[in-house]
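Sanity check

After download, print the first record. It should look like this:
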Amino acid sequence: MRRRGRWMALGLLVSVMCLCAVVSYTRAAGELSPKEARKLIAQVAGVELPTDAVRVKEVSALGSSAVVVAQVETAFRFVKDERGKWRVAEIRTGNNKWEDVDMLLRAVNAEKSARAHAELETIATALEAFRRERGFYVVADKEGALIDQLNPRYLHDIIRLDPWHNAYQYQGASGNFTLRSSGPDGKPNTADDIIRKG
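Expected structure tokens:
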């Protein structure tokens, strides 16, 4: 699980750095040419890549959208940590400036934390609506049982996983509840947990 989390974090980091291997693009009409796809990928998220740093491997039309499989030139700068183990310190696409990996991960985790707070608030609002109507909160010790009780009447969307792809946790009694995300480290009851009580 820890290795899976690292790869998922790297995958997200790569997408933040515009290194996405598969890019979906919606188009009103006509076919998406490899040249146009290369140009669009080079401009993703406002980062200008030289078009020769992007190599389009495949363009598949899907009605009014297309899937583009591409390779983006990427450089990684490694450093040894205090224990003598190598780690990725910086990343660069094309001939752009080097970006600090730790800073990017902090930014990604800050965004994910904000999303987790919002999702927990949405679930808490549904729980309050449930309590107003029935006089008590959902009594359960699993988030899945909670969502099954709330959806679709009180909660329109099914929310089971936090932004780090770990299950939200729920502990509920008739008079109170605790909702929790294990946060970036994926471990419950640590300092980075995101908690909503009611």
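If your output differs, re-run the checksum step. Summary of this record's structure: The first strand starts at residue 22 and ends at 26.
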